[in-house]
Amino acid sequence: MQYVKDKVIIITGASSGIGEATALYLAKNGATVVLAARNEGKLRSLTERIKNEGGNAFYKATDVTVNDEVQSLVSFTIDHLGRVDTLINCAGYMLFSLWDNAHVEEWEKMIDLNIKGTLYGIAAVLPQMKKQGQGQIINVGSIAGHAVGEGHGVYSATKYAMRAITESLRKEVAVKHNIQAVLVSPGVIATNWQSTVTDQDVKTVLEDLNNVAIDVEYVAETIGFVVNKPANVMINDVIVAPTAQEW
After folding, report:
1. Which residues form the Ketoreductase domain (predicted)?
2. 130 exposed, middle or buried (CB, 10 Å; 0-12, 13-18, 19+)?
């Protein structure tokens, strides 16, 4: 993976799930990864694991719903490594619920993390990438940003927003500044995401999805495929999902 090797890559949501798997995959293939999430203990353990396996990693505890903290993350990366080649906006909540149950606080959490967190990351890296004359912004969306299912309403809305954000970036930034803007949309993944869902009325939906879930490593490999492109080649949109998942 010649274009992954030696890239400086910031990964948000790196303490678990897709973010963690992606960090391991990219570091194994020669990238220097800067890991960001709120859980400093998990970040420290993952950083140590990557280093023990011969990779290069740094971490900074970051709440991506706080703009100043995201700006500090990017400044930290530039101070230590001199540049930011790739930002992977991976942090996100997937909190399914039915409209009848009106989980307003959970809606707000998803809007803050999935949308605002993505926007803050973009705002923080754009000046540096424009200065460099190239860069990659990879937004991790969802198949729920392409089709809406039962209990997905607000979650899907946040992922449709990520599609719009990414497409707008392509039209305004990619053409003018040679910055690749990519959306990777996973289907249902075998992580522990169901444990965060509090609405018991969507239990059947969760069970049906879990029955067809695929390993998170396949998503990490797909993100790696996107990262492993020269500056003049952009993969626009990628969906990676279970063969048996209906959408």
Report:
1. 7-185
2. middle
